[in-house]
Amino acid sequence: MTETPSKPALALVAHDQKKDDMVRFARSHARRLAAFDLFATGTTGARIIEAAPELPVTRLKSGPLGGDQQIGAMIAEGRITALIFFVDPLTPMPHDVDVKALTRLAELYDIPMALNSATAELIITHPGAIARPI
Ligand SMILES: O=C(CO)COP(=O)(O)O
């Protein structure tokens, strides 16, 4: 029996001050993003689904309630191909340790990680760069 190969998985996360940027990113790259299984923290996912309902986004818990850690665990399990995380560098976060843990795991497992729009644009417009098998 042949199994249908799964799509590469992209994790999408944005802090509150960056959610409008994420919505713009999702809208303008909807066609490209549709080639991935998409996972997002709770509120980020809700905003993306509202803006681009055609995208297959699986929503996890909100970041401060464990969503960042859920994505980190998926990275440790080899289930995430790349992380796009629009970080707000100007606002203190109650869950700063979770943010750090998530980016640390992306570093540790050497997955492509975009922490701002400029890098996210590079990643999504060069999909070959993240085509590694999961
Ligand atoms: O806080 C976040 C990442 O650290 C994002 O979580 P939400 O998408 O639920 O706002």
Automatic annotation (TrEMBL):
It comes from the Bacteria. SMART domains: MGS (SM00851). Its EC number is 4.2.3.3. It is an enzyme of class 4 (lyase). One of its GO terms (molecular function) is methylglyoxal synthase activity. It catalyses: dihydroxyacetone phosphate = methylglyoxal + phosphate. Pfam families: MGS. Keywords: Lyase. CDD domains: MGS. Substrate binds at H15, K19, T41, G42, T43, T44, S62, G63, H95. InterPro entries: Methylgl_synth (IPR004363), Methylglyoxal_synth_AS (IPR018148), MGS-like_dom (IPR011607), MGS-like_dom_sf (IPR036914). Residues 2-134 form the MGS-like domain. The active site is at D68 (proton donor/acceptor). One of its GO terms (biological process) is methylglyoxal biosynthetic process. Belongs to the methylglyoxal synthase family. Catalyzes the formation of methylglyoxal from dihydroxyacetone phosphate. NCBIfam families: MGSA, PRK05234.1. This is Methylglyoxal synthase. It comes from Kaistia soli DSM 19436.
